[in-house]
Write a structure and sequence with these properties.
Layout (H helix, E strand, L loop, with lengths): L8 H24 L5 H20 L3
């Protein structure tokens, strides 16, 4: 941070925190309507991650 004194680091942190709060609010809203169990959501996430790896690394 000392390398870039012209950057307002408190503003950067404020914006990052605000974005994280927006993300968490969206996730809460989405999950409140979900009928998936936590285990099903984790399994779905793993399948999506594997598919993305295959797509972007060109494997499989």
């Amino acid at each position: 941070m000392d390398e870039f004194p012209e950057i307002n680091w408190s503003e950067v942190a404020r914006q990052a925190i605000a974005q994280k709060l927006r993300d968490l609010q969206l996730l809460k809203k989405m999950s409140s309507k979900s009928k998936l169990t936590e285990a099903e959501a984790i399994e779905l996430g793993r399948k999506v991650n594997k598919a993305l790896v295959k797509r972007y690394l060109g494997t499989g």
